[in-house]
Specification:
Blueprint: H1 3-9, H2 18-27, E1 29-33, E2 38-40, E3 48-54, E4 56-63, E5 66-74, E6 78-79, E7 92-96, E8 100-106, H3 107-116, H4 118-141, H5 146-161, E9 163-165, E10 168-172, H6 176-183, H7 187-200, E11 203-206, E12 211-214, H8 217-224
Antiparallel strand pairs: 1-8, 2-7, 3-6, 3-8, 4-5, 4-7, 9-10, 10-12, 11-12
Helix pairs in contact: 2-3, 5-6, 5-8, 6-7
């Protein structure tokens, strides 16, 4: 992959030198996964960093036969970087929602990459802080009514990974169970809220394309920030 394309997909690295990026990409391997396949198993965390070139994935917490969705990621994001410095056992895995293409970089090579460029190392720390802040915001949302929590999840996905069209912002049409996990609202209430949002015309679903369109961004954003 060319360095300019990589920087466009992953703005975090736009400050890295061309030489450093070329060195990193020379160590990277592209891999494809079909929908439903595990991209990263719970016992493989810490082995590599995964950059999402296309598609949508979910990070799940796994306990016995049960699994709950913790996060949804898509093109332009990456995962596995925090586990490199944490050798404790993991109980999470990553599963493809759609066909996914990722670029994998061995853990040790990624660490060397970070220390080649102090500015990049600093920006990575900033990213980790932002992710921690998002976790704290999600905890605060537990005090809100279901509609606010669900709108916050959908608008957040739209802001991070959405595709802007004339009809609105398109995101992957997540199953109700996954939206319920992310918003911490039970599936029955989640389904009721989604139906109300559809009736209002604030969201629209194209099942064939597996796309949800946030048709009324302003109203959804206002609902997501309602206190």
């Amino acid at each position: 992959m060319q360095t300019d394309i990589f920087k466009e997909l992953f703005p975090l690295f736009d400050a890295a030198s061309v030489e450093t990026l070329e060195w990193l990409l020379a160590e990277a391997v592209e891999r494809d996964y079909p929908a439903g396949r595990a991209v990263l198993m719970e016992d493989a965390w810490g082995n590599a960093v995964y950059f999402i070139l296309s598609g949508w994935v979910k990070v799940r917490f796994v306990r016995s036969q049960d699994a709950a969705t913790l996060a949804v990621l898509a093109q332009g994001d990456f995962f596995g970087e925090m586990a490199i410095l944490d050798e404790s056992p993991r109980s999470t895995d990553v599963v493809a929602f759609t066909p996914v293409r990722v670029l994998t970089v061995p853990a040790q090579k990624f660490i060397q990459f970070l220390f080649k460029d102090p500015q990049l190392h600093h920006r990575m720390l900033q990213l980790m802080v932002r992710r921690l802040r998002k976790t704290n915001q999600r905890t605060q949302l537990r005090q809100q009514v279901p509609a606010v929590r669900i709108a916050s999840v959908l608008t957040g996905l739209g802001e991070s990974y959405g595709n802007k069209t004339e009809a609105g912002v398109e995101i992957f049409n997540l199953p109700v169970s996954d939206i319920a996990d992310l918003s911490e609202v039970n599936p029955e209430d989640t389904n009721k809220v989604l139906e109300k949002l559809k009736d209002k015309g604030w969201i629209a679903v194209d099942s064939k394309r597996q796309v949800m369109t946030i048709a009324n961004e302003r109203q959804m954003a206002q609902l997501a920030t309602f206190r």
